[in-house]
């Protein structure tokens, strides 16, 4: 392996921590990212001669911190000079940070820097799309091009989104810190949501012709694992990791040989990854915190675990799933959760009971263009033998589906019903 | 993101007296924390000596089995890890870090193999 590729591998591994260490000093993640890039350039210059240092991460971090401190000092000197010539500044400069000692410092500090970076990149002041792009760029180590490809956007658009996000954070004077106060739960939620949304985009692409984009799922899963490791006391962080591990275990079974979607009921469960299921269960165990009622991610993971435990679709414990959806609806009510609960009720008690629940939420504005509403309704009507009504629902669902693969599946379903007598 | 199986080989007849030194155990623990926090490690384990193992072979349409220890090869598999990394270079960097936590009295080889995606 050439030194250049060794250096790049080291940098990819260390990048987020290097940016985080610099950001704590300069308090600006855009500048911190540039400093990290500079540290990489120095490594590329020095390491081919001196060899890769024993602790390459510490080396990069020390270089970045030195540059960050220099930068802050230069700014302060500049501010002092300005003050000397009799101008008053609107903002007092920050006190100089303590000089970092290269390559030392307790690990807890580094973890804390990384958490600060995560909470800042996912700050609610940013629109969701900006949070996603920034998180994938700074913490997932994805290039702008990779992010653009994953979200079917143009590279300049993504680059601009990231640049704008950095500016917004600076303009809003978002403090570079881990929230510990009353807003911690909401802030953590906004971090977990970013990872969840990235995973979902990979798991059921909202547009385009791929049904699944496994690479994006893997990026999200890696971030979820990082979060669970950095926030061992947060039940929901383990819940999210558990949910994504178990969902990802099904990826090999979710597409047929021709790339068409295979629904849960029809999946070959021997193709589910036992390793990921095991990891999901372990994360779910860690999520159980005595005295803390399970949150929405833990409950969704528990539902996913019910499916994972069933050897065959017929073995699914639908009654337990109904109960879990009931708990989920209590902690995070939403029409989509109701719809899923309706499916579970239909499986546990029959299609008529499920249909009653679906019809109760059919008028929800949030579900107006949601293709899974008519798709579920069609499934339940078909179960009741009302084929013609079912067929119409599947056609309607196909009209709303934005994913090409899914649309084909729904149309095929409608077609099959048309060929069967009432 | 590809997955890699790292097969750890060592000469089980020349493992340093007393196995891990306390310092090495500590370094190993710190590395494991680091690799877990990077979201990279999927599974890892150490194996008991080959004397407790058994080898089953299928050849010429017949099964045959032999008991350990497997002395005909100098180096035997002593452990494994499964990591998810962007590329071989990244997996190699982690393997290098794993090797470097060993005391100098150890001789250990890591073979890194990409797991084929179906």
Automatic annotation (TrEMBL), chain A:
Residues 187-288 form the DUF6596 domain. Belongs to the sigma-70 factor family. ECF subfamily. GO terms for biological process: DNA-templated transcription initiation; response to stress. It holds the Pfam family Sigma70_r2. It comes from the Bacteria. It comes from Streptomyces qinzhouensis. Residues 14-76 form the RNA polymerase sigma-70 region domain. Keywords: DNA-binding, Sigma factor, Transcription, Transcription regulation. GO terms for molecular function: DNA binding; sigma factor activity. This is RNA polymerase sigma factor. Residues 118-169 form the RNA polymerase sigma factor 70 region 4 type domain. InterPro entries: DUF6596, RNA_pol_sigma-70_dom, RNA_pol_sigma70_ECF_CS, RNA_pol_sigma70_r2, RNA_pol_sigma70_r4_t2, RNA_pol_sigma_r2, RNA_pol_sigma_r3/r4-like, WH-like_DNA-bd_sf. Residues 86-107 are annotated as: Disordered.
Automatic annotation (TrEMBL), chain B:
Gene3D superfamilies: Dimeric alpha+beta barrel (3.30.70.1060). It comes from the Bacteria. Residues 24-98 form the YCII-related domain. It holds the Pfam family YCII. Belongs to the YciI family. This is Transcriptional regulator.
């Amino acid at each position: 392996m050439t030194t250049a590729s060794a250096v790049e591998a080291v940098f990819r591994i260390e990048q987020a921590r290097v940016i985080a260490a610099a950001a704590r000093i300069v308090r600006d993640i855009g500048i911190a990212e540039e400093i990290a890039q500079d540290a990489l350039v120095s490594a590329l210059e020095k390491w081919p001669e001196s060899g890769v240092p024993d602790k390459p991460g510490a080396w990069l971090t020390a270089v970045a911190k030195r540059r960050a401190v220099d930068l802050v000092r230069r700014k302060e000197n500049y501010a002092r000079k300005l003050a000397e010539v009799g101008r008053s500044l609107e903002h007092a400069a920050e006190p100089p940070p303590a000089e970092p000692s290269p390559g030392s410092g307790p690990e807890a500090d580094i973890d804390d820097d990384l958490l600060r970076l995560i909470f800042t990149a996912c700050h609610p002041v940013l629109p969701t799309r900006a949070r996603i792009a920034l998180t994938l760029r700074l913490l997932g180590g994805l290039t702008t091009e990779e992010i653009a490809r994953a979200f079917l956007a143009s590279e300049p658009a993504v680059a601009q989104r990231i640049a704008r996000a950095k500016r917004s954070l600076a303009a809003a004077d978002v403090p570079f810190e881990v929230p510990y106060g009353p807003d911690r739960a909401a802030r953590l939620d906004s971090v977990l949501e970013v990872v969840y949304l990235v995973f979902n985009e990979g798991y059921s692409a909202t547009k385009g012709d791929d049904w699944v984009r496994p690479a994006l799922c893997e990026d999200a899963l890696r971030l979820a694992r990082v979060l669970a490791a950095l926030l061992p006391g947060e039940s929901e962080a383990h819940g999210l990791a558990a949910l994504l591990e178990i969902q990802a275990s099904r990826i090999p079974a979710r597409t047929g040989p021709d790339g068409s979607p295979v629904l849960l009921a029809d999946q070959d469960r021997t193709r589910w990854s036992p390793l990921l299921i095991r990891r999901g269960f372990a994360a779910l165990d860690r999520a159980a915190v005595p005295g803390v009622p399970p949150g929405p991610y833990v409950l969704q993971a528990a539902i996913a675990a019910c499916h994972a435990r069933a050897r065959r679709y017929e073995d699914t414990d639908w009654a337990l799933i109904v109960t879990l959806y009931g708990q989920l609806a209590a902690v995070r009510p939403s029409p989509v959760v109701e719809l899923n609960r309706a499916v579970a009720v239909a499986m546990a008690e029959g299609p008529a009971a499920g249909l009653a629940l679906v019809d109760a939420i059919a008028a929800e504005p949030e579900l107006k263009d949601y293709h899974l509403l008519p798709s579920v309704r069609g499934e339940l009507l078909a179960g009741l033998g009302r084929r013609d009504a079912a067929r119409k629902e599947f056609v309607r669902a196909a009209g709303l589906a934005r994913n090409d693969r899914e649309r084909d599946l729904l149309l095929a379903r409608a077609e099959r019903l048309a060929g069967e007598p009432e | 993101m590809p997955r890699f199986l790292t097969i750890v080989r060592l000469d089980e007849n020349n493992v340093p007296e007393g196995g891990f030194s306390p310092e090495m155990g500590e370094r190993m623990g710190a590395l494991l924390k680091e690799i877990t926090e990077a979201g990279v490690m999927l599974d890892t384990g150490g194996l008991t000596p080959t004397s407790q193992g058994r080898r089953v072979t299928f050849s010429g349409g017949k099964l045959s089995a032999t008991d350990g220890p497997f002395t005909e090869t100098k180096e035997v598999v002593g452990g494994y890890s499964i990591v998810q990394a962007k590329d071989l270079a990244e997996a190699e960097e982690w393997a290098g870090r794993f090797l470097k936590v060993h005391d100098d009295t150890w001789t250990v080889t890591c073979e890194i193999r990409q797991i084929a995606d179906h």
